Amino acid sequence: MLLLEAHEQGAPQLGCDLAAILSERDPFDRRQIGSDLEARLNSIQRHPSLRTLSQQLRRQLKRLGASPQERDASVNAGDLILAAFPEWLAQQRPGQVGRYQLRQGRGATLLPWDPLQGSPALAVARVDMGGRDTQIQMAVALSQSTLESIAERDGHWQDEASWDPERQRVRAERQLKLGALVVRRTPQPSPAAALCRTLLIEQLKKDASLDALPWTGNSDQLRQRLAWMHQQVGVPWPDRDLTTLLEQADTWLGPSLEGCLGWSDISATALEEALWGDLDWSFRQQLDDLLPRRIPIPSGRQATLLYTADEVILAVKLQEMFGSDDGPHVLNGRIPVTLELLSPAGRPLQRTRALKGFWEGSYQEVRRDMRGRYPKHPWPEDPRQALPTARTKRKSNGQQS
């Protein structure tokens, strides 16, 4: 192949010299010239066996007739090597002197003392593939401009996007590729929407978590309420368990990710809309009716419920539940709310789903302990007959009344 290419390009003598060097066991001192094929060409006359073999090859080549461009001085060793071994074109890996990647994809290295160390590209003519990485044994150094010219002629442009873990964003670029080599990169500010969606979904699954999404109190509570509806009622309420959401991320979240380059591009509102999925507007009112965020309590105010995976919790001052024998329920009475009864200072005193049992039982112990600490707050003997109080009023001088 090498001889025929030399014949076609009008450089028969150069081709014969190269073929002679590559055909014989290397007689040169590698400690002096490393893998430098040009240095071998310059010293071929000092090796009679190589000179004789080159002359024999030249006589064989002459039988093919004159070259189309006889004695073309513009053809160099790199041109012939690239034509004969195109898949061994090597590009130095970024920031790794002496480490290369071949056009066919395999890694390749130079010995640490090799004079070709630091060359941006190599036209490789001989390799040793016995190790994990290919060892480059003979090559011609190429400039970066030569590599780019080859890529512009034989390569292609390809849009690529990847995840940047430091910036937590999609990094997109156009790449000039030559086989496995990326010869030039151009930033692309607006990558394909579908590509961004795919990368973001892949990152969520790689992290095995949805924590990167812009969760708020509202969106987390919406997810919990929808999960309760799916568990208690079933279809058409969607499964919003975290494990299911992660597994089905492309289905429910994917459309909201198109055009987003990072998590900061997703709004809290968009996340809430994604959680609703295909449910129409009537289901939103149903959810508010069946699993409300706020409910009225005996004190007269609207108190906020907290939905968790295991229970629905109402944290409320103990005095606000006076006069009531039973705690609240949701989902048409199917789910009892766990009351977290608080001291006047907001510290938990008792957790219960059976308010009557608490009044008849451990309340008296709580009453004995709390009366001394908070004497200005009501601690009636029979809280079921007492009036609930929302808060303690304060006088203008800041004292409680």
Describe this structure in words.
The chain has 401 residues and is α+β, with helices and mostly antiparallel strands. Among the domains are: 2-82, no CATH class; 212-280, no CATH class; 294-385, no CATH class. Helix content is 36%, strand content 21%. The chain has helices at residues 2-9, 12-23, 30-33, 37-42, 48-62, 77-84, 144-154, 193-207, 217-232, 242-247, 249-252, 254-257, 268-276, 281-290, 355-360, 363-373; strands spanning 89-92, 99-102, 107-109, 121-128, 134-142, 156-164, 169-178, 181-187, 294-296, 302-307, 312-317, 329-330, 335-336, 338-342, 348-352. The strands form four sheets. A five-stranded mixed barrel has the order 1-2-3-5-4. It has a five-stranded mixed β-sheet with strand order 9-10-11-14-15. Strands 6-7-8 form a three-stranded antiparallel β-sheet. A hairpin with a 4-residue loop joins β6 (156-164) and β7 (169-178). The termini are far apart.
Sequence-ordered SSE layout with sheet pairings:
Blueprint: H1 2-9, H2 12-23, H3 30-33, H4 37-42, H5 48-62, H6 77-84, E1 89-92, E2 99-102, E3 107-109, E4 121-128, E5 134-142, H7 144-154, E6 156-164, E7 169-178, E8 181-187, H8 193-207, H9 217-232, H10 242-247, H11 249-252, H12 254-257, H13 268-276, H14 281-290, E9 294-296, E10 302-307, E11 312-317, E12 329-330, E13 335-336, E14 338-342, E15 348-352, H15 355-360, H16 363-373
Parallel strand pairs: 3-5, 11-14
Antiparallel strand pairs: 1-2, 1-4, 2-3, 4-5, 6-7, 7-8, 9-10, 10-11, 12-13, 14-15
